Amino acid sequence: MSNVKPIVEEIRYDTNTLNSAVKIWEHTLNKRVLSSYPTVYIINDNKHSKYSVYVGETTNIKRRTLEHINVDIIEGNIWENFSNSNSSMMYVIGHNYFNKSLTLDIENKLMQYLSSVDSVENLYNKRTNPQSEYYTSEHFEAIFSKIWQQLHRQNAQLFPLESAIQESAIFKASPFHKLTNEQYLAKQLILERVRRALQNDETGQHIFVDGEAGSGKTVLLSSLFFELVNEFKKDFKIDNPSLYFLVNHNQQLKVYQQIADKLGFNYKSGDKITKPTSFINNHSLDEKVDVVVIDEAHLLLTQGQMSYRGKNHLADIISRAKIVVTVFDKNQILSRTQIWEEDTLQQIIETSQQNDNYIRLLNQMRIHADKQTIHWIRNLVDNRKIDNIPKDSLGYEIKVFESPKSLYEEIKAKNENKDSGISRVVATFDWEFKGKPKSNGELWGVEIDDWKLPWNLQLSVDRLEKKLSWPEQSQTINEVGSTFTIQGFDLNYVGVIIGPSVIYRDGKIQFDKNKSKNNKATQNRTMADNSKQNFAEELLKNELNVLITRGINGLYLYAVDKELQNALLRASKGEIIID
């Protein structure tokens, strides 16, 4: 069924051209699907190599297009702009097996792809309509790929290669992803709680979403925030909603702001998609905002630091909002400034549970591996044990290298292979790095024997790539990433250099804080009772956890500590003796 080719026709966006085209389609056997069946259409206008795009689906292309031209033009500037432009064009897409559900899925995925395209400046029709199971749904992916390939052949600037789109951070955080059942149920529960809180004018509500690395938290929040923006406009008739998205991570902030800009939210993304300290400093306790959504809430500060003069980011945000939604993973806390008093965190979780506001995500969405491989990775981090590396039935590759150079060369080869996608080298923070360059002009870097590579954020960036996140920038294949640049992102293959702070003694992984350069992890934390405690063991373990869970299809390892390296090599050869 999916072998049937789609029909893609490009016409000028005007009444005369439409009428002429429909007449031809009606009398051409293989093109009747465009006039007599459900279709998907893409209206686009190219100005200075930047596109404004509208994606839609309809059961009658002639009637729907005339509505846009004659009726919708009264409602908003976008239709007036399309109609008045001499460069506006329209792609009409048909297929013999299109039905309402399939066209809605095609429409949704086209928006997901186009929102990730560099040349698309504005994307309109921001509804999300992913469908569940239906007749022909099993052929959806194959049919969509053929449609995209045909569009690519007609206009490579507007429709780049699928592989290029799927590698972008915007695509991976897109609100148009089809949610898993677990994510969908979580989203519906959150929406219900938000509606109830706003209708009843409740304040101080906190929804706590708990999930480990790769459990789909970011996609859930992106989809939720996007739907909330549209719901505010549709149901509450608010063009500038009191709705905020916060993340305490510079690289991820870039991605969310790009998504908001492309989707045309009616405000500057920097105002409503920002960092926690900025939000707190710009909002008083007296005027509570409606909703705050926080990604990577484990990165929130739990003590004052620099421009933040409070004591707890989350408490200060909750006191400034009617309802707050957070996603949290305690195993991704990386700094002493993010450490929670155990009883305080437990109280927050218990309160959310009592209010039926606690959600736990259990599925592993990032790592494309079987249960045995997932268990091996979790056992290494959580239990600090190294077992024999299993052969993965899904093709996930765990490989141990004899040297950092050979690991780097393999990652470079994977990165250059278009089928493998973006791959990068990362390392534990065990080599010095400072904001200011060295006095001799050399770059701060990771140096092992005669091999050296600079740390992240030092090589010059192409001006066209400055808005991209660190892993997407082309020069970063020649840098070593850290948790500061890679947390929250996916790589197809990740090469992890495990520095000297991670050692292997008496059959278990241990951590030597004296060999780490990460002062935020190794220095003492002053607690509520003024006692000083050290959390280096926990924080260095979390650092390792973040790094080794970045790879979708593979994890490459090299360890500086000789005993750890030998244990990993034995594990790769199946030589570990299990008691």
From TrEMBL:
<dbReference type="InterPro" id="IPR027417">
    <property type="entry name" value="P-loop_NTPase"/>
</dbReference>
<dbReference type="InterPro" id="IPR018647">
    <property type="entry name" value="SLFN_3-like_DNA/RNA_helicase"/>
</dbReference>
<protein>
    <submittedName>
        <fullName>DUF2075 domain-containing protein</fullName>
    </submittedName>
</protein>
<feature type="domain" description="GIY-YIG">
    <location>
        <begin position="36"/>
        <end position="126"/>
    </location>
</feature>
<dbReference type="InterPro" id="IPR003593">
    <property type="entry name" value="AAA+_ATPase"/>
</dbReference>
<dbReference type="InterPro" id="IPR000305">
    <property type="entry name" value="GIY-YIG_endonuc"/>
</dbReference>
<dbReference type="Pfam" id="PF09848">
    <property type="entry name" value="SLFN-g3_helicase"/>
</dbReference>
